[in-house]
Design brief:
The protein is an alpha/beta fold. It contains eleven helices and twelve strands. The radius of gyration is 26 Å and the shape is elongated. Bound molecules: S-adenosylmethionine.
Length: 328
């Protein structure tokens, strides 16, 4: 690990930071230690999401972090891209708002991160033919800012440019309110308002965390998101709960989607026709009987009757001998 620390002295960093704030506004989310007592925001901020993402990258990557090529989409103030670049990865960060990207540029310069490549662009232009391929793609806090059909094509483009895994940290739509179709596949979700329809582009750009221009975005439902990952070419996907993020809302998930090789089953060739399976619109999975009230109560009541009584009651039931003969 280890890319050069501050290339300027503390007084110069403080002066340049004040100038960046004057031109582009205060940092809104990503807290980064720059030197001595200088942070982009301050010393008392939590970093649970950053810890989770860095740990996932380190645990799941097939190579050491310093050999990885990582893409951070919608990087905001660059907290994730900068951290991973400081760990030695080759990082490309794409962000649509100049006011956000200028802050990343400032920190990149302060920390001397020549392995961090910054692009101001719309992530909907993502194209492996232009941007290349990546071991790890970060799509954090971004998917739920895109509208249909862009959100669907975007996930396909992420899969096309990823040969390791992608991390999606995203809200999901609850209640399957709207139906969408993309490349003949059905997905469910709901539309969420991002900007007032009558707002100007200038007003939209001022909301530093929001969609760039689209007034609505699609929040894809949980099961549909997994189906979309599968349709896009990911071969398995997992939800991360550790390291913890205790303040995460119940409709937000960190999902890791792996881009592996689809495996064929030798024991059951018929199962290879639909290797990935498809989740239904809703999942209602009953609890096991051991945790259901009536089956447990019935078992406990039965156990109150001595075993010898139960056996003789069973024997006296009509059809008992026929049943025992036919059972294996
Ligand atoms: C909620 S913030 C999340 C930022 C960061 N990835 C994180 O997880 O903290 C969403 C970011 O995506 C950017 N963004 C939204 N839509 C974009 C688009 N179409 N192209 C590029 N950037 C976009 C916003 O400017 C903002 O910086």
């Amino acid at each position: 690990m280890g890319v050069a620390l501050a290339t300027m002295d503390a007084a110069e960093i403080a002066r340049r930071k004040a100038e960046t704030v004057r031109l582009w506004g205060e940092w809104t989310a990503h807290n980064i230690h720059l030197a001595e007592d200088i942070y982009t925001i301050g010393p008392d901020r939590e970093a649970d999401k950053l810890r989770r993402i860095v740990q996932i990258v380190s645990d799941l990557a097939q190579k050491p972090v310093e050999h990885l090529r990582i893409l951070d989409l919608g990087c905001l103030e660059g907290g994730y891209a900068i951290e991973l670049a400081r760990h030695g990865a080759e990082v490309m960060a794409i962000e649509g708002r100049r006011a956000n990207l200028e802050k990343v540029r400032f920190v990149k310069e302060v920390l001397g991160l020549s392995n961090l490549d910054l692009l101001q662009d719309d992530v909907r232009n993502l194209d492996p033919a232009i941007h290349g391929h990546f071991d790890v793609v970060l799509c954090l806090g971004l998917l739920y800012h895109l509208d249909a059909p862009d959100v669907f094509s975007f996930v396909h483009q992420i899969a096309a440019g990823c040969h390791g895994f992608a991390i999606f940290d995203t809200y999901v739509g609850v209640q399957n309110i709207q139906r969408f179709e993309y490349r003949g596949r059905e997905y469910w979700g709901r539309l969420i308002r991002e900007h007032l329809p009558q707002s100007s582009m200038e007003e939209r750009l001022k909301s530093r965390w929001a969609s760039l221009d689209n007034p609505n975005s699609v929040w894809i439902a949980h099961n549909s998101l997994y189906n979309l990952l599968s349709d896009a070419g990911f071969t398995s996907a997992y939800e991360c709960n550790l390291p913890t993020e205790l303040s995460k809302p119940g409709d937000r998930f960190t999902i890791v989607a792996m881009k592996g090789k689809t495996q064929s089953l030798l024991a059951m060739p018929r199962a290879n026709r639909n290797a990935m399976g498809r989740l239904p619109k809703d999942t209602h999975r009953p609890y096991s009987r051991k945790q259901q009230f009536w089956p447990v109560a019935q078992e406990r009541l039965t156990n109150l009757v001595p075993l010898t009584w139960r056996r003789s009651i069973k024997r006296s039931l009509p059809g008992f001998s026929a049943r025992t003969r036919s059972s294996v």
